[in-house]
């Protein structure tokens, strides 16, 4: 099991010692003190002697992405004091002249020879070369790199695999949102330890998680998440987090911002890092099916995938959105049988709506900005026909917005004229952030009853969670997490 090192950023020795003792009490295996982030370099470090656990002293220069601006001689003198105060390890950046002075002037201290890149991840061969050179100097090689793509994640895994042949220890860390996966899966990467913050909000690097979360995930965690572009707005992590706690399963739901041209590589990431599965969102729901090994009947029926289950070495596509749409109608007591429905938009979510409405016996009309896409969609379903703007005045019992218009981060406005809304209609906006959209406001003004995307979101999440863990979380748990949560 990978050890957890709490990285401490405090303004004084007293505060850092207090934090270190708290970290120890909460189960940290070792601590790192970021002296470079203190406003002044402390002269008396003796208080650290009462912290009886392995300690790393770090004094990273501004040029290396830290906060220290002094000379090498000051750094050397400081590290000598840290060793006298009981610090066992020093974090020294690769290429620092201090590495050469270590034998004589640093009492042959344990050294973490680290390389940081806050912009990108170097090629695997370059990282491997650095690691081999560092370990040849009897130092523990550490690489901390910003992860920008699935390729970077695969590169990290490749370094770990190749370096493991040396049977020497190393520490590999990814920074940024995608980098969190390398921290959660530190065991898979063979990292000697990984970093955590003492509390959420006290992180010393992007993508770092807090100690309590990391402890919970220490042993064979269930790792899932959401793949999309963008995913920043997603509230799925808060819902699934609540479900993991309720079911007492050590799991985490991460955000994976993955662009279209990076999607194929992400499939390999899922296998390489041992993901249990992942949700798929805008704009990948229709294309991802081609990259999977198999499709479950729910995904075949909808022609779109929003949940993937990793079964051994196979990626299997499912659709839990259809269930979400169905539950939205059921909970509102609306039976679509024999009713006319206007579906606005023809993307992945629209497919889920069509699958449900058509199977439930509604007469479906699809209106989309790109009509050819609506026609294509209608070819897959019974009782479904694409229409142009001239047919929007027909009069519909049900109207569903499945475009992102009105969603946070997307343009406001309506994809249909306000005249489509009538009293007695059921109008559903699949958008859930914000809870009230221009579409719903216009529908309510006309006297329609409305529902936003929340019911669908919660029910598809329950079904996804069940798919990955075999356990169904309660609606109340996921729904209240959604209401109280922020992305
Ligand atoms: P998608 O596959 O990318 O499809 C988006 C659809 O919206 C396409 O038909 C697109 O038209 C249309 N569209 C995009 N921008 C438009 C604009 N400015 N004006 C008019 N039409 C526009 O996305 P999706 O996965 O179907 O998701 C669609 C929406 O549903 C998103 O807001 C998503 O958050 C929401 N959703 C909610 C839930 C839930 O659980 N509540 C589940 C799934 C999706 P073109 O074909 O012309 O590009």
Descriptive notes:
By secondary structure, the protein is α/β, with parallel strands linked by helices. It is 33% helix and 21% strand. The chain has helices at 13-25, 72-84, 102-105, 124-136, 150-163, 180-184, 211-216, 236-247, 263-272, 297-302, 321-331, 348-359, 371-378, 438-445, 454-469, 475-484, and strands spanning 3-8, 30-34, 55-58, 89-93, 110-117, 140-146, 171-175, 193-197, 209-210, 222-228, 251-257, 277-280, 294-295, 307-311, 314-318, 340-344, 363-367, 384-386, 398-401, 426-429, 449-451. The strands form 3 sheets. A 9-stranded parallel β-sheet has the order 7-6-5-4-3-2-1-8-9. It has a 6-stranded mixed β-sheet with strand order 11-10-12-14-15-13, with helices on both faces. It has a 6-stranded parallel β-sheet with strand order 18-17-16-19-20-21, with helices on both faces. Helix 2 links the parallel strand 3 and strand 4 (89-93). The chain is elongated. It starts with a strand and ends with a helix. NADP nicotinamide-adenine-dinucleotide phosphate (NAP) binds at residues 281-283, 285, 321, 324, 345-350, 368-370, 373, 402-405, 407, 411, 415, 430-432, 453, 456-457, 460.
